[in-house]
Amino acid sequence: MRRMIIILTTLLLLFEYTKNSYPAFIEKIGIIEDTRSKLKLVIKSKFNSYNAVLLSHPFRLIIDFKGFYIRKNQKKLLEPKGKIISRIYIGNREKGARLIFYSVRRSGFRYRIDSKGEYLIVTCWPKRNVKVRTGEYMALPRPKRKIEKLLSSHRKKRKAEIDLENTKIPTYTGKKISLEFYKADLHNVFRLFSEVSGKNIIVSDKVKGTITMSLKNVPWDFALDLILEVQNLKKEERLNTYIITPIEKKEKGKGELIVKKVSKDTIHLARALKKREEEIRNAQQIIRKAYELEKRRKINKALLLYEKATELWKDNADLLKKTAYLYYTVGNFARAYYYATRALKINPDDSEASLYGALSAVKLSKDEDARLLFEMAIKGEPKIPEAYYDYALFLEKQEKDFIHALGIYEEYEDLFGPILQTSLSIARLYYQLGEKQKACDKYREILLSGFKISSSLKQQIEKNIDKLCGKRSKL
């Protein structure tokens, strides 16, 4: 009997040794998302544990998998096309597999590792932070600094154009079109009008030259008359055909007097185009002066000029946003709100204008307006980190809507990557909502994420981990 027990014990030990010495393999490693703002890599295997560490010079993330190895057919080098990770090395070491993520930028990147069943998902984002001004608790993003942005504001599409969507022109009944020509041959231009109008157009060989113009949303017959007027041409209609010829100049005292009939609408709109261009040129001069004052930190004087420019150039959204931003910085929240909402009338999907309006509404205690504008800010374009951060803060601190705030914080981290402020807020909200285990996991994640944490904050996080998870869970 004793001999039988010894044999069984030996067999069990041999089986355990064989089981532990047999290598486990990572089934698959591949990139599933690669954009300018996010990279996701999926690793398939049943992991017991892994170790991750961030190193600098060069900035890189190293993940080690003890006891798990890469198969021979796995690609050993991945080269993402985005702007976050330059290359990912995959290989085996003596104790297991290793992955190394090299950063494109010197400043590095943020990362998060999530476990979902038999998959491990590594997500990387560009490293960025929201900047909070002294004395404030919400973040205020600066508008574009370059003056060219204020002076051009979509000028490529607006040169010599006027929107006639709501203008009544009884003389012209043609289908409304938008045109943009740059040194286009006149014969080619009239060929285009033939296709648009369905009319036969015959152009005299004496018609020569080119034209540069931009018209938006005008009847085609008005556009045709405007070109004829500018080019000193005339048209004669016969049945379904236009015959276009130059207006010939007669010598003094000879021939007939030609009187060109131009409709009042044509004259009015031509004058409107000219007046608009003059106003924009004047506004540009004022903007340059205001910009110089702003650089010298004479904000109030700069604001007076920016305001004057907005009255001349009413649809320059970038100028309106700049004015809203500056008014917010000097504490005039009513004027900031006014200019932000003016910018939104031009483009309701402008996330920057929505955010400036929301922040101003918070200061004015217009909580309903603030919530609506924050929603517009996170749904609009471009996607701004501060919009999500500020909205979550507003929901947490002022609305006490902890569940919604938690969702916005998590959406921030999914879009832009975790930062210390959002990670601490998420952990705090999990605790307030009674999710102690999730709060503990988030605090542990903060200590592993490579954030620059003061010694006092680190001690507080460790205390929270001990309190929520027990001292044996301490990292």
Overview in brief:
It contains 16 helices and 16 strands. The protein is an alpha+beta fold and 475 residues long.
Report on this structure.
The protein is of the alpha+beta class. The chain has 16 helices and 16 strands. The strands form five sheets. The protein has a five-stranded antiparallel sheet with strand order 4-5-9-8-7, with no helix packed on it. Strands 2-3-11-10 form a four-stranded antiparallel sheet, with no helix packed on it. β7 (about 75-80) and β8 (about 85-90) form a beta hairpin. The longest helix has about 30 residues, at about 265-295. Mean pLDDT is about 85; it is low at about 155-170.
Q: Keywords, please?
A:
five-stranded antiparallel beta sheet, Phage tail protein beta-alpha-beta fold, 475 residues, Immunoglobulin-like, Serine Threonine Protein Phosphatase 5, Tetratricopeptide repeat, 47% helix, single chain, alpha+beta, 3 domains, four-stranded antiparallel beta sheet
Task: Quickly give the CATH architecture of the largest domain.
Answer: Alpha Horseshoe
> What is the number of strand segments?
16
The gross shape turns out to be elongated
Task: Note the main sheet.
Answer: 5 strands, antiparallel
As a percent range, the share of strand residues is 15-25%
Under CATH at level 1, the class of the largest domain stands as Mainly Alpha
Helix content: 40-55%
CATH superfamily of the largest domain: Tetratricopeptide repeat domain
Strands ordered across the widest β-sheet: 4-5-9-8-7
State the helix count.
Answer: 16
Q: Give the overall pLDDT as a whole number.
A: 84
Examine the coordinates and then state which fold CATH places here, giving the name of the CATH topology of the largest domain. Serine Threonine Protein Phosphatase 5, Tetratricopeptide repeat
Query: In angstroms, what is the radius of gyration?
Result: 34 Å
Distance between the termini: 48 Å
Domain tally: 3
User: What ranges have pLDDT less than 50 throughout 5 or more consecutive residues?
Assistant: 155-170
Given helix and strand content, the structural type is alpha+beta
